[in-house]
Specification:
Layout lengths: L3 E2 H4 L5 E5 L12 E2 L3 E2 L13 E5 L4 E4 L1 E4 L5 E4 L11 E6 L1 H20 L3 E7 L3 E7 L7 H13 L4 E7 H6 L17 E7 L3 E4 L14 E8 L4 E8 L8
Helix pairs in contact: 2-3
């Protein structure tokens, strides 16, 4: 049985009930726990896995140290080996909201960075304090201050951020929508999740985002560094300390 991705439809939810599944090998001494549904985003696409806690019916609080993708559509929550959970138990899932919301804000900011730097993306990562994208720039060059101004103008414009699904065939007909050169969108299910930012960006993405660009807040391009003959690494940081959000 696969894990329903509650975080995908409810990215702002901080707490939810779930049931521990009785999947062979999913629950054991390694501390991996699989539930029927999850608020916890599993590591992927440069976005870290969520952390938080499971609270049992008898009041025990169990730390979720990380979240990873498992086989057959399951999500693996990594707990201490002595968690004591059993199949069929109900748990209340609570994510580390401040960390997740920072990831959502930074993820949206990085999509906007790919707008102001219109080159192929060769890598990237998202953090609560900073994020980065690597680009295949060739001979092109960019100024940090100018990029920061352009980014913050897009953020302040308060574009809505929405998601939708298209068929794999539709994406094949529009290959320019795929900005990442090193990682292809996951296939096999017949549909691809797309994230749209107003009328300025539209690309495949499975991660979590804020509902509008204004929620991102001010950012700055902290550095642009060489990572090979053509590759350049752009690092974003907050222009002010991030808060806990909604």
């Amino acid at each position: 049985m696969s894990t329903a991705l509650t975080f995908r439809e409810l990215p702002y939810a901080r707490e939810s009930l779930a049931t521990v599944l009785s999947t062979t090998g999913a629950i054991g001494e390694d501390g991996v726990v699989v539930t029927d549904a999850t608020l916890f985003y599993p590591h992927g696409g440069g976005q870290p896995g969520d952390r938080g806690v499971f609270i049992t019916a008898d009041g025990r609080t169990l730390t979720v140290h990380d979240t990873r993708k498992g086989a057959n559509g399951q999500v693996h929550h990594l707990l201490d080996p002595n968690h004591g959970l059993e199949a069929g138990q109900s748990v209340t899932q609570q994510i580390d909201w401040a960390r997740r919301y920072a990831h959502m804000r930074m993820h949206t900011a990085l999509h906007l960075l790919s707008v102001v730097v219109p080159h192929g993306v060769t890598g990237g990562s998202i953090g609560a304090d900073r994020g980065r994208l690597d680009f295949d720039l060739g001979e092109a060059s960019f100024d940090k201050e100018e990029l920061s101004e352009r980014l913050n103008a897009l953020i302040a414009a308060d574009y809505p951020v929405t998601s939708e699904w298209i068929s794999e065939a539709e994406l094949d007909a529009r290959p320019e929508l795929v900005k990442t050169m090193s990682v292809a969108p996951p296939r096999g299910a017949g549909e691809i999740r797309m994230v749209r930012i107003g009328d300025v960006d539209y690309q495949p993405c499975g991660g979590t985002h804020v509902a509008s660009t204004a929620e991102v807040g001010p950012v700055q391009v902290a550095s642009i560094k060489n990572r090979g003959a053509r590759n350049r690494r752009f690092t974003l940081t907050w222009a002010e300390a991030p808060g806990g959000g909604q």
